[in-house]
Amino acid sequence: MDFDFNLILVPATLVFFVIWLLDKLVWKQRATRGKGNENTAIAWAYDFWPVLAVVLVVRSFIVEPFNIPSESMLPTLETGDFILVDKSAYGVRLPLLNTKVFGSGTPARGDVAVFRYPPQPSINYIKRVIGVSGDIVRFENNQLSINGQPVISQTLSDRGVQSYEQFYSETVDGKTYLTRDLIGISAAAQAPFVNMANNGEFMGRAGDVWQVVVPEGHYFVMGDNRDQSADSRFWGFVPDANLSGRAFYIWMHKEKGFKLPTFSRNQSIQ
Fold first, then answer.
1. Does the predicted TM-score (pTM) go above 0.85?
2. Of 72, 229, 232, 244, which is the active-site residue?
3. Distance from CA of residue 198 to its chain's centroid?
4. Does 256 fall in a domain?
């Protein structure tokens, strides 16, 4: 997903705040020379830091916009969707440090969560939470199960336009959403994490059978576009410290190129 805009927003806000504060307490150019006659940097500080501060607070603690750049969450999210993320859903965290300062919310199975990609935390990822702390997530005979209970999955014969794709209605803990498979392809066959020896007896089964136990304070996530998603099957669990928030709404969509954005896909994220 998007580059972390806070890497720019936080330093810019702090710099303008320091300049504003120094002028208030030390330089006092705005007070002595009058507005418009102070140094350019000081004028910018007065104009921009309050606006940047509001944007920073909203993006960091309330709601943050993201753009979807890939098809890993099809059909739930399409490339070009602009979504809103509830930043308080999993506890309020400090920008950049990502340290939880208050709130005790945790992801639930079926949530669409935004998090910092564990192998490269400067990048944001979005996937669906399948397993939470302590869960046993197993895949066998083309059936996903959690703690021994098969995940409800119904074939949708009226979805899809390509002969190689198949859509399903999947339900986890009362949350129903759509998933997409590619017929004859198993992404898990090339997924290092679920095929490693330290994941148990399933090494060498080409992704047909795998099982993981989710550690405390971690989550197992998968893309809804199951055969075109680099997710926990490939790189492992998401630590709680990497969570950013819960995606809850599509507010705009824009196709690639010189096309105007549309609001035809405005809807809650299931």
1. yes
2. 72
3. 27
4. no
Q: Are 189 and 209 in contact (CB under 8 A)?
A: no
Based on the domain organization, do 223 and 140 belong to the same domain?
yes
Active site residue 153: no
Q: How many CA atoms lie within 13 A of 268 on its CB side?
A: 5
Residue 163 annotated in active site: no
**Within 13 Å of residue 16, how many CA atoms lie on the same side as its CB?**
18
Please identify which of the residues 24, 60, 88, 127 carries the catalytic annotation: 127
In a domain, 94, yes or no: no
In a domain, residue 126? The reply is yes
Please state the domain count of the chain. 2
For residue 228, what is the domain's CATH number?
A: 2.10.109
DSSP codes joined into one string, 121-143: TTBEEEEEEEE-TT-EEEEETTE
Give 9-43 as a DSSP string: HHHHHHHHHHHHHHIIIII-HHHHH-TTSS-HHHH
What does the pLDDT look like over 137-151, one tens digit per residue?
A: 999 888 999 999 999
Residue 220 falls inside a structural domain: yes
Q: Are residues 138 and 194 in the same domain?
A: yes
Show the domain range for 21.
6-62
When pLDDT is averaged across residues 172-179 and rounded to a whole number, the result is 96
Q: Is the same domain home to 182 and 114? A: yes
| 193-218: pLDDT as tens digits | 988 755 555 555 666 888 899 999 99
User: Please, is 76 exposed, middle or buried when counting C-beta atoms within 10 Å of its C-beta (0-12, 13-18, 19+)?
Assistant: buried
